[in-house]
Structures
1.
Amino acid sequence: MTIVIAGAGLSGLTLAAHLTRRPPRCEVLIVDDGGKDITAAGWGSWSDRPGLLDTAARHHWDRVHVHALGRSRLLDLGAYRYRYVRGADLAATVTPMLESAPGFRRVRGHVDDIVEAGVEAGVGTGGAARVVVDGEPTEARWVFDSVLGPSDPPPADAVLVFRGWHLETEAEVFDPRVPTLFDFRTPRSVGASFVYVLPFGGRHALVEHTTFAAPAVACVAADSDTQRAALAEYLDTVLRVGRYRVEREEAAALPLSAQPVRRRRGHVLAIGTAAGLLKPSTGYAYERIQRDSVAIADSLAEHGHPFAVAEPSRRHRLLDGALLDVITARPSELERAFARLFDRSSAEPVLRFLDERTSVREEAALFTALPAVEYARAAAGRWRRNR
Ligand SMILES: Cc1cc2nc3c(=O)[nH]c(=O)nc-3n(C[C@H](O)[C@H](O)[C@H](O)COP(=O)(O)OP(=O)(O)OC[C@H]3O[C@@H](n4cnc5c(N)ncnc54)[C@H](O)[C@@H]3O)c2cc1C
């Protein structure tokens, strides 16, 4: 019986690679309609542990700059490294793994529908779920869905709006040894805005203007002219890069939700952003997708089903939600919060917190720097609403 992975983007390819480690005794079909060009994608992330796809990372850094409240800091990352994986490199790493694994097949096709057993009469006779690709049904034992997602996704608490330029400068202006995780020296718009800089070489970088916005004002924050003007102003007046050429632009508006996603529908499991793996307080998903894929592959091999994966931590969701509530109500608070959280020589404790690996005691130590009453009020409000 077949396993279908719907979507061959970040989560589909990562899961497929992990399944080759402990191959299921059935065909694995990976379906993508080519709607998104993976070679144009790229993901930054931090990690403190080895992973199956580490060789896909082209750039690594062990220090970062932060600029907030008029202060610039250089922080080491402790046990962590920050890295950047280009979509083309991810695809080039995973493709040979799939080609040498018996039973793995990639096909071009549009997923029209995914129907779990019990929803439609007849499904469950040949398989436990049915995937309709270009009008043709395929019966599947398990379906991993990164394309349609649950029919009832939680409402967005905020939207992460960003526009980035992959650029080439005439002069050598970037220090390729140190990226800038956030720099608040950019006009505040309707949301909390900062710029993020990944230097790939002395003359090449990704410079991204990023805003955490309340859902009601996300379309204002996403105004492309305003974002481009902010990028140009940052390059001219803050980095003073001189002449440059934009090689490629990327932009998105990602809904952020601290509510859990109902990932499982019968024999269908949502993966990737459809599974709520975008961390609400950061907008990062890369490393969470790596860990989720390890857990799914291990669960299938050890239990014969893919569901022995960690549930999102309730405490961290509450804290993420409280942060989003505070910064969407008062955008200036993001800069203040980040300035205080990163007012240390190493970013490691904050990254451990964002990885949801801190204890309550460690979190209390981190949060002493924040206006406790405001966050406590936001967290209490969320807790009451979620009960
Ligand atoms: C521009 C951008 C930059 C980002 N940068 C970062 C970052 O630096 N770090 C980070 O951690 N996260 C980042 N993210 C967030 C997140 O990691 C990415 O969105 C990531 O690609 C999500 O993986 P996914 O598998 O869920 O979706 P995708 O990677 O988008 O994969 C979905 C795939 O499904 C295919 N598809 C869609 N619909 C259908 C259909 N009906 N039938 C068949 N195929 C279909 C698409 O062609 C695509 O290949 C970024 C997101 C965006 C949009």
2.
Amino acid sequence: MRLSVSLISDAQGNPIYFVAQTEDITERKRVEEEFQRLNQALEIKVTERTKALLEAQEELVRKEKLSMLGQVAGSVGHELRNPLGVMSNAVYFLQMVLSDADETVLEYLEIIKNEIAAADRIVGDLLDSVRTKPPQRDIVYIAPLLEQTLRKCTIPPSVTIKLDLPESLPPLFVDAIQIQQVFRNLISNGIEAMPEGGSLEIWAQVGKKAETVTINVRDHGIGMSQEQLGRLFQPLFTTKARGIGLGLVVVRNLTQANEGCVHVKSEWGVGSTFAVTLPVYHVMAG
Ligand SMILES: Nc1ncnc2c1ncn2[C@@H]1O[C@H](COP(=O)(O)OP(=O)(O)OP(=O)(O)O)[C@@H](O)[C@H]1O
Ligand SMILES: [Mg+2]
């Protein structure tokens, strides 16, 4: 209720009487409150939308920068492939002709060879993460594929590789070069997870309907926390001083491009297992 009182005076200004008026303002109050509530809700919405818009704009700028950086990295990577290849051939030649050289020379040649191999993996990851080429799929036998991959990896003397493959594994239908890159990354991660050394186990099993083979890489290293597990496949996620954080992005992209999938199990302080499932070659598929 609202009460308004007016004083009525005569011509000389002497009060004659009061006029009191009451008014039911319940409805007006309700409308006013409703209006205020709507106004507040609108303000909150406008603030939220502005924030989202700003975030979207920042994300767009970030993506554009990343894509530009990706293109630069891609072309630099591409240009580095040739000199790396030449250096690798030169080291191979030197190791052949200097086989009688003293131990230090041979040791340094081995260091150069290993560093070239590490640079080659990084360049490969850089190129594969910028653009995954369509796979050139063919019949690929698992044992020679893994043996070849292991030859390209630098295995420290403190790490033992245990390769355990059943005799009768069906061949895969995949791009051999891409799948080698997948295992190069998983093997390097496994080795890097065991700075004190240990055993890295690689084994394979055929899927239920014999349409797939799962190849597992298990280390007994540092393992991962839940937080790490959640961010594992994010580009540029790394916990290593010398890491880039592209290895697992490439593992997932290349595996998926070859119609496969990757699963991870890990326990902090115990170790990790990466399981890569890939399609088997069928006469029909070829
Ligand atoms: N086998 C593993 N054991 C423990 N942590 C791992 C393992 N594999 C991956 N990680 C974690 O996931 C992160 C991302 O791995 P990823 O291979 O993508 O990048 P990176 O090894 O750090 O660098 P690079 O680009 O040189 O491979 C690692 O930094 C590490 O924290
Ligand atoms: Mg890695």
3.
Amino acid sequence: MQLNQKIKDFYDASTPLWLNTWGEQMHHGYYGPDGNREVDHQQAQVDMIEALLEWGQCPIKVSRFLDAGCGVGGSSRYLAQRFPDAVGLGVTLSPVQANNGQRYNREAGLSDRLTIKAQDLFTLSPEDVGTFDIIWSMESAEHMADKQGLMDLFYSLLRPGGQLLMATWCHREEPPALSGKEQKILGNICKLYHLPPMVAISTLGKAAKLSGFSNVATDDWSKAVEPFWGAVIESGLDPRNWPGLIKAGMSTIKGAWAMRYMRQGFTSGAIAYGMVRATKPAG
Ligand SMILES: C[S@@+](CC[C@H](N)C(=O)[O-])C[C@H]1O[C@@H](n2cnc3c(N)ncnc32)[C@H](O)[C@@H]1O
């Protein structure tokens, strides 16, 4: 089965359970730079959005934004409320996510300026959808194999002066080369969450520069997000969530099993939570 079909099926099946247990944000929480901040986990997910807006040097005025790999659009609605004049487009591979996202948009009174579509990001072109002031890429780039193609696409979809803000799962920098044990942990994560092989954060920075971006900066926020997986594992162990897990089917059950590999990935240092910001030169 093609990778995108697997990703679609995975999110179609697992999203209802995630919405019941965690809500509309489908990404890590942010617990302060050292991961020591004691904060409710769902608040930590919202704090992640604010932290990326600040670190990513988001422009003060945003008229159009793209949420690239948007889940049910938790970030989209946050951005739409933060930038009350802005129009937003979110894309996901999962029709289940898109339908739920559109319903949440209506409930939030945002459907006139926020659209969530089930569409492959790589089919977007500036001719069809125009250009954006910011591209928001929150924990979706890890699903995409062609990182250079992704950076080129983002470059083409930004207006001159526009800003890319990205958070994504990576592996730690080499050298030293990843050990056999690290490769095994990463391989399990990639298999169960339908990810192509991960890259180092520096690889994304280099790809962004090659696409023509300026002011490219990268950072590793592994410490800041590490407490999140303990909480996700706890929610997986809560018997109240088991019926939903069984209903969601085998790929979600396997995804739940992969939580322990994520924890191992962080404790062993094999996984790195990568941040990228980059500006399209103003022409
Ligand atoms: C872990 S979820 C993150 C969702 C969202 N950004 C959030 O933080 O709540 C990953 C998302 O990436 C999307 N995705 C992966 N590959 C994609 C592609 N080629 N085109 C569009 N969306 C994609 C999935 O459909 C899913 O919505």
